[in-house]
TrEMBL record:
Domain GAF: 32-165
Name assigned to this protein: GAF domain-containing protein
PANTHER family registered for this protein in UniProt: FREE METHIONINE-R-SULFOXIDE REDUCTASE, GAF/PUTATIVE CYTOSKELETAL PROTEIN
A Pfam family annotated for this UniProt entry: GAF
Length: 165
């Protein structure tokens, strides 16, 4: 159970649902990718516990380039197929890494990171926008509910920034 701002506790799934609603309201009617990405990163980072980094890597046609985020300064460019982010981008499948120290090729931007989830962001036309990456200082922070919750949040984000969706 997580404590939320109002002081009562909600199960993880209910908390993701509430967060998705907040994100939907926050992004509604604003088409700017950078503005929405910045506010989305801030909303998620400050609403859920035990994160040390949450943000975007955007695909520039060649590689992933760091975008709006919350947390310490991060690696700027990541090739497709490299690290957890590059793997999510290349496979287009969410990566849930229980212990980053056992992930071959993990890119350590912040030594505090112990577990990580990365969701690929794919536009309606099939092209890659980038990835959504969240790191935690705790091993095993992300489970199947986080996968479903983060994917649902990313769907809300994509609906706002990709007019074709
Ligand atoms: N750990 C990531 C790199 C990005 S930072 O975590 C912000 C990776 O292996 O792709």
């Amino acid at each position: 159970m997580f404590e939320i701002k109002s002081g009562h506790t909600l199960g993880k799934r209910a908390q993701y649902e509430e967060l998705a609603q907040q994100a939907r309201g926050m992004l509604a009617g604003e088409p700017s990718l950078i503005a929405n990405a910045a506010n989305f990163a801030a909303l998620v980072f400050h609403s859920l516990p035990d994160f040390n980094w949450a943000g975007f890597y955007l695909y520039d046609g060649t590689e992933l380039v760091v975008g709006p985020f919350q947390g310490k300064p991060a690696c700027i460019r990541i090739a497709l197929g490299r690290g957890v982010c590059g793997t999510a981008a290349q496979t287009r499948q969410t990566q849930v890494v229980r212990d980053v120290n056992s992930f071959d090729g993990h890119i350590a931007c912040d030594a505090a990171s112990q577990s990580e989830i990365v969701v690929p962001l794919v536009k309606a036309d099939g092209s890659l926008l980038g990835v959504w990456d969240v790191d935690s200082p705790s091993v095993g922070r992300f489970d199947e509910e986080d996968r479903a919750g983060m994917e649902a949040l990313c769907a809300v984000f994509m609906q706002a920034v990709d007019p074709q969706r």
